[in-house]
Amino acid sequence: MSNIPANRAAFNAARFFRLPQNRATRFVLLLAVFCLLLKSADWLWPLAVPDPQRQTEGAQNDFAQLVVDHHERPLRAFADSNGVWRYPVELSEVSPFYKEALLNYEDRWFYYHPGINPFALLRATWQNWRCGCVVSGGSTISMQVARRFHPHSRSIGGKLEQALRALQLEWHYSKDEIFTLYLNYAPMGGVIEGVGAASRLYLDKPALDLSLAESALMAVLPQAPSRLRPDRYPQRALNARNKVLQRMLEFGVITQADYQQALLEPVLAYQPHTPQLAPLLARELRRQNADKSLIKTTLDADLQYEIEDYLAQEIQRFPPSHSAAILVLDNASHEVRAYAGSADFADDSRFGHVDMVQAQRSPGSTLKPFIYGLAIEDGLIHSASLLRDVPRYFTDYQPENFTRHFSGPVSATEALRQSLNLPVVQVLEAVTPERFAAALANAGARYRIPGDGKANLSMALGGGGLSLAQLVQLYSALANGGQVWPLRYLNGESPSVAGSRWLFSTETAWVLNDMLRSPRPDRARSYALQDNDRSIAWKTGTSYGFRDAWAVGVTPAYTIGVWFGRPDGTPSPGHYGALSALPVLFQLFDRIEHKPGVLPQPEQVSQETICWPLGKSAAETAADQCFQTHKAWLVRSQLPPTLRDERSDGLWRNPLTYWTSERGLLVDSSCDVPARTAHQLALWPRPLEHWLPASQRLRNRLPAVDPRCSEPPALALEPLQITGIQDGLILRSSRTRAGGSAALPEISLHAQGGLGPRDWYVNGLHVGSSGEAETLSYRFSVTGEQEVVVMDAQGELDRRTLQVE
Fold first, then answer.
1. Domain's final residue, options 715, 749, 769
2. pLDDT at residue number 625
3. Could you list the residue range(s) of the whole structural domain that residue 657 is in?
4. N or C end of the chain, less CB within 10 A?
5. Considering the entire predicted model, what is its pTM?
6. CA angle 473-558-305, nearest 5°?
């Protein structure tokens, strides 16, 4: 009896461990035990697999970073931290042919088994036993994914571990997530993994565009990636591909016609290489988007390739250490279509690694249009306003023309198209440098001014720093109704109205665009033909010392900017905007937009005939006060008079009132005459006198002084005149006794008349000052035609031209 408790205990234990007789209960119990084992496996052997739901985000150290254009064509690629090329793809981004080929060749029952396929394992065991070799592994897609992240030995134990890992995968992830892992991590030969990278590097196309034959090739490649690489062993790859196609036909996945058509397609693969388009922009975007594996840009790969190829050839015409940059902007979408930051990224001798699209450089004359635009916006001038291309002297700034000659009276349009320096300084002085700097900053283009950073008149001629990207952004306002939009480099970003800034009104933008649409100098010289060839609004610029050569062009569709120079800031004598950058600009427009359109004229822009010198409407100007007529574009019917210059115009009103005696002679209030008659006289700006026909000069339009006046009227002061130099004078250089180089002649500069001290200019360059009775000595530095100009304290001028031989 003493054994009964022990036996009962054993009996109860046997009952506890015995499987229930009810089949449903037994199944639930077995399932619970199976789940317990899997959870134990998770605890003992954690599953180290990337999160399939974040494949397209991709960590930088797990996926290669691919920079693509707006059609998702590769521009530049960066391998992962281990040097592996793996481009992330989702299930929806792969060709349906590839999915069918992979499933029917690798794992037909993938969506039905729990991670392992017992029938496939038994078949593989039987085939291997009969052959005495490895014929088939019996691995499912889940098992292959498990082996990719948890490698094992080729043994029964290793196979069991693979099966356990596959069950773990199925426990944690959906079928589509496991399939996505396979798509991204399957070995494809060398350091290439995943169908995304393989299709890009071998076939130069995205996985979504794979044909039936290409899909079969990509599906079989992981079976033996080194042996079946299509770039090295095309015949092996062809035979393996055809096996996949044969199996798809046998399973009824494809028709006989599809099969025969696919067999005709040859195996043609590229040697894997990584693209190198827009390398500098790609490098910067990669830095800004380190967490993204796929960076979608707004660029056009075809256009980018053409520009880079063209620029690499064009730069060969330039000396060593020179580079170039080009930026192409779509005005409507504000998207950058091409970005060449240097002439040749691979050429270190030309500083190919330096991005000159973003570099701060002196913009030269390229900002002149915006000075005129602000003056039009503020009602100071219109397109045909009379401006002065004459010497202007300031104690802290001495502007001069690029040609070192003066043109006298010019219209605002003519001054802008000829890129004259003196007129734009006159306009900037009226606008004020502070207003100009603030307008640029408000538009998102902060003008970096050296020294104390204060706005000054040198800004008109490039006395500061701006980048090519900022210039293109500003110029695009001419096609966007005066609005400046941020440049867009990433695809998918919608432009926000809040991101735009007004530089000036739509009307001013249209007028300024018209002023810049001058005939192309590379076309026919016939003015009749040139007048019809005004489809591009363009402007050139050259910085001080020939360090930067610029050209920017605008059509309704595109804005293009071009820069040439040396990134290290060394001067490039003889290279300037019109010579170096402008021909390239026109070549680009001919390639991108052969027949540009024209912007529609705004309703509040009108054309008016105006008269010089007063600048008023011809209809409201007396005939004797209208010496020249010009067609002017007016904004909101604003018709400002000729822009005054307080430095030289003094306090005289225009038109000027003067008096004559009963004899018709000039008098003033101090003259003792019985009667006076008032007359109106339209005045030209005094500094322009010596560029006018003799009949239009002030003193030739006034009558003689009445002898009854004790002192001559102020209008009759003796005019300023250069003495000792006649127009056409020829000065010859002297030779040294030893027969060496010529000694250029020296000349004495003296003037009489006028009022106050004199400032002297030779070829537009200020060479010195003298008092009323003083003489200044000057030795010429070059031969050829020379222009000598003197200006007194009232702004009155006289000039002579001579020849130095």
1. 715
2. 93
3. 644-715
4. N
5. 0.79
6. 100
